[in-house]
TrEMBL record:
PROSITE patterns: PSP1_C. It holds the Pfam family PSP1. Residues 391-411 have a biased composition (Low complexity). The lineage of its organism: Bacteria, Pseudomonadati, Bacteroidota, Flavobacteriia, Flavobacteriales. It comes from Aquimarina algiphila. This is PSP1 C-terminal domain-containing protein.
Amino acid sequence: MGCSSCSSGNDGQPKGCKNNGTCGTDGCNKLTVFDWLSNMSLPGGAKPFSCVEIRFKNGRKNFYKNTENLSLSIGDIVATESSPGHDVGIVTLTGELVRIQMKKKKVEEDSEDVKKIYRKATQKDIDIWQKARDREESMKVRAREIAIRLELQMKISDIEFQGDGSKATFYYTAEERVDFRQLIKEFAHEFSTRIEMRQVGFRQEAARLGGIGSCGRELCCSTWLTDFRSVNTSAARYQQLSLNPQKLAGQCGKLKCCLNYELDAYIDALNSFPKTETKLKTEKGTAVCQKIDIFKGVLWYAYEGEWMNWHKITAEDVNEIIASNINNEKVASLEDFASELIEDTKTDFENVVGQDSLTRFDQPKRSNRRRNRNKRKNKKRGSSEKQTVASNKSKAGNSENKNSNKSNNQPNKKRRSRNKNNGKS
């Protein structure tokens, strides 16, 4: 969300108002409320609601009375009552929506906590306020150095100056109780202002600092979440999540707030499931639950002693078996119920984008068995080819010997015939 002064600049680069959430239109505030009743006029004779919602640094909001009947609108900078002096804030909500917000947060209109609005801030008030805010970052660095020197087990996360610059509030986090009396003395001597220490939780610190969660989006506590409910490990157990603190913990070091979002839906779904501690008694043996799938509505059971063989059964069939066991009746076996379960292999999605698989060019890995078979085949082929070549060579040698013998025998035959002819003569 960005205001008009936070729009894009040249070449699409973000311009930025450089006000860190204090711009006049209140468009860059992380907890901005849209007044959907702003264009509606009040009925005749009705008086406008006298209270106004005002925001300070880092989303801190309070309700104030408009006793002077000032004409205020969203984005106006006003000077409000404080102790001591006055504070400067920005109007974030007016009209009947403020009445609804006060009723939601259980704040009475006549309560002492609802203070007054003095006036609209003058230019002098705004200049003092801006100078005080410019000092906060350097003071935070110096304050952390002093806390480290005093060896205090605490972390100073942020500093907020009052609008008139007369008081500075130090927000810190600590695991245990901290004795910061000496720290306050050194802060007062170092910064020459009134000091107030305020401890916040780790969730509140993460909300003030902001960041990106493991989901890739901004933290819920820094964008829209206002109430921080306690999160237990039972929420992860109900949702069958692995109890890995590195995956379940957020940036604050505590369990993620989003574990509570779908917890009620899981609890409602588990009401129709049988308890996992209940054992199924059959004629074949006693079966124990091994795993459940809330989305598919099935459970896996295994016989005692046969832990490797799991049987997939629907929750309705399991309830039926348990009901028969309560009546001292045993079913024949789990296979009778598991055989009726048909696996649905149809996919519920299609590749509408038309993109191919990222591994379409990768060659599938060939198993070692295939390689060994191919090697054996190649060896057999090579040996058979050698044998055929050797046999062919032997055959060729025999034929050559026969031919040579024939050629050698022919002149002997001619000589014999000549000798016979000579004797006759």
